[in-house]
Recover the amino acids of this structure.
């Protein structure tokens, strides 16, 4: 039998109908729903008199718009309407909902794995590009638009052209103080934000195998920032152990049966891909983005690029435009960039291990007087778990605000925005113009790097802190 | 969905690459629960200053491009979020065709579901059209049936398109209605689906 990669295996087991000259009709195992990209889809169903085919394969929550303080008050009337619309739609169509204040509520990509809904081998979709996060479990998970949300609601399928496959192998082991976030930022900085367009990426290599499930989620989460349709990692024992005893995971004998099936999905030795890229973990240092897309990033020890480093006129122009927006100079050392805000949160880096990593740097220290910091746990249950370990106290003592879960300043749809012209060290995934607020300047970093910057008021090499801590 | 075949119009040259969906439609406009009315928010922060006045330098505000149905940009158009509000805004503003050397996958998909024709030409071809359009208003005929873009100067550019999506756009099909024809196959699949 020919060696197959996991992408081909999952694809092939989900084909409902195949025909020359048409995309494949694929079955969808799990449909995650949130308030921003679903109202028009439900409205479409109603207008056409259609039903939800499999409400049991849907799960809904509120995350993008929800306030992260003074709950349950929602000041913004339009946001409130959108949130209430989802609650009504979930009720009308019989879909399970983790509403505001519900113990399962959280960022959709954080709660899917927490609840054990995310499982290897599933096809998972959501009207959200960071659906790729679920690929960490060896699921084929990708973002869709609202018309496709409507299509999945009414048919539980999607027409999909088979994308090309790409292997990105991360060799060796990460240095101390270097994290999963730095791996994915380094990949995007190296090959650009279009490198994955039209492809599904499988991340392989020793460095990936060594990562925890939460770290793997950080990597897969940002596949879309590399342009990929999806990113995934073949399941292994860590995947299985993460899922054991989760609410929606199978139980008892059924679990063992499932586990055997999950492990069988891992890419076969010798499987081939359309594109192969490789990078050494040892060459990666903590990364800070300096520009207005996620590929505009570099190591903490480096400087902002200069236009003579680029060949084409359009690249030089892009650099100038980005630096004008960011208020930075060519050749400026990254460490000299002063920040006014720190945001620890988002579906990239708001899980318990992320909060722990930041807290370990902050513990016993105060944040810089010129900096305002907020910590937004990815879910209600993450928040509870963090509080049980006393992390909230560490952050509050240092001068951070400790919030309720939601997307928050990752995209600033609620009140959590960064003012124009001010700078934020952010653990989120996008540094586009205006992403965190009109005129706001976003620098993407790992939770540990964000924490260190909060203390110093400018970017610093977190490895210094980690080493100090180890010497003590 | 409105069918599309032939469109003739002056092009709007948006000479940028990596135009992301946050720029196309900013998050403050995503709270509406309707599909329509997003056109006035298209490229909002490029189009208007903080006081809400038109920025005269931005291409959409120049009188010579008003009423255009064809947007031309550079590489990786529509990258970023999955928000379908981006194609809704583009369509509602009046564009039916977007031409670029490459598109982000989700955006590309979303276009077909809304009767927008995304055309991939090579980087050189896009550069040529952009520079003509930036120089002076440049009108082109787009013909989906023939898969051609023909400039007013007679220059012809051919493009490829997935035959399935071509049919869908030409006929203005409702994809869900099409899929319902396969209901039996979906039920058959469900009966033997691997699920735990
Ligand atoms: S946290 Fe940010 S990237 Fe993640 S789903 Fe929410 S808005 Fe999107």
């Amino acid at each position: 039998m020919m060696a197959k990669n996991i992408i081909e295996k999952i694809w092939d087991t989900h084909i409902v109908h195949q025909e020359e000259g048409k995309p494949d009709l694929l079955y969808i195992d799990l449909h995650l729903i949130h308030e921003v990209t679903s109202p028009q889809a439900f409205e479409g169903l109603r207008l056409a008199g259609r039903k939800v085919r499999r409400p049991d394969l849907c799960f809904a929550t509120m995350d993008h718009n929800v306030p992260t303080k003074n709950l349950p008050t929602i000041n913004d009337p339009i946001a409130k309407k959108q949130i209430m619309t989802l609650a009504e739609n979930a009720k009308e169509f019989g879909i399970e909902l983790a509403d505001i204040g519900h113990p399962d509520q959280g960022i959709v990509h954080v709660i899917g794995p927490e609840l054990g809904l995310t499982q290897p081998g599933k096809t998972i979709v959501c009207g959200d590009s960071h659906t790729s996060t679920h690929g960490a479990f060896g699921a084929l998970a990708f973002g869709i638009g609202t018309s496709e949300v409507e299509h999945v609601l009414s048919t539980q399928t999607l027409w999909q052209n088979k994308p090309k496959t790409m292997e990105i192998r991360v060799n060796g082991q990460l240095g101390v103080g270097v994290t999963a976030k730095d791996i994915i930022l380094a990949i995007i900085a190296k090959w650009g934000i279009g490198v994955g367009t039209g492809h599904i990426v499988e991340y392989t290599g020793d460095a990936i195998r060594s990562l925890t499930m939460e770290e793997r989620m950080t990597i897969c989460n940002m596949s879309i920032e590399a342009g990929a349709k999806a990113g995934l990692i073949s399941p292994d024992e860590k995947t299985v152990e993460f899922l054991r005893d989760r609410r929606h995971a199978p139980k008892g004998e059924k679990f063992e049966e499932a586990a055997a099936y999950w492990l069988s999905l891992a890419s076969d030795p010798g499987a081939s891909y359309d594109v192969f890229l490789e990078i050494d973990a040892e060459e990666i240092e903590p990364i800070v983005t300096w520009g207005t897309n996620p590929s505009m990033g570099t190591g903490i020890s480096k400087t902002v690029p200069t236009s003579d480093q680029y060949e084409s006129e359009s690249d030089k122009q892009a650099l100038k435009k980005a630096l004008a927006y960011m208020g930075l100079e060519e050749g400026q050392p990254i460490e000299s960039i002063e920040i006014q805000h720190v945001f620890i949160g988002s579906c990239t880096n708001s899980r318990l291990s992320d909060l722990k990593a930041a807290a370990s740097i902050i513990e016993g220290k105060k944040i810089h007087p010129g900096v305002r910091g907020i910590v937004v746990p990815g879910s209600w249950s993450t928040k509870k778990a963090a509080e049980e370990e006393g992390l909230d106290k560490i952050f509050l003592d240092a001068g951070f605000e400790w919030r309720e879960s939601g997307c928050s300043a990752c995209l600033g749809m609620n009140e959590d925005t960064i003012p124009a012209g001010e700078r934020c060290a952010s653990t989120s995934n996008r540094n586009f113009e205006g992403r965190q607020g009109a005129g706001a300047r976003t620098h993407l970093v790992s939770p540990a790097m964000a924490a260190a910057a909060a203390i110093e008021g400018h970017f610093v090499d977190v490895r210094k802190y980690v080493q100090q801590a180890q010497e003590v | 969905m409105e069918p599309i075949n032939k469109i003739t119009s002056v092009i709007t040259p948006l000479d940028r690459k990596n135009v992301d969906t946050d720029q196309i439609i900013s998050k403050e406009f995503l709270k509406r629960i309707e599909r329509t009315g997003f056109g006035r928010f298209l490229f909002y922060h490029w189009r208007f200053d903080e006081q809400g006045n038109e920025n005269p330098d931005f291409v959409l505000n120049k009188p010579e491009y008003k009423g255009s149905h064809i947007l031309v940009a550079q590489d990786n158009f529509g990258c970023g979020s999955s928000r379908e509000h981006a194609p809704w805004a583009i369509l509602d503003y009046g564009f039916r065709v977007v031409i670029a050397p490459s598109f982000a996958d989700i955006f590309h998909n979303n276009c077909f579901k809304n009767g927008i024709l995304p055309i991939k030409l090579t980087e050189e071809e896009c550069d040529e059209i952009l520079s003509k359009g930036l120089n002076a208003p440049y009108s082109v005929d787009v013909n989906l049936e023939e898969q051609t873009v023909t400039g007013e100067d007679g220059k012809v550019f051919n493009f490829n398109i997935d035959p399935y999506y071509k049919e869908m756009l030409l006929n203005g099909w409702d994809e869900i209605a099409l899929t319902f024809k396969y209901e039996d196959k979906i039920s058959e699949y469900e009966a033997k689906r691997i699920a735990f």
Remarks:
- Chain B touches chain A through 51 residues (CB under 8 Å).
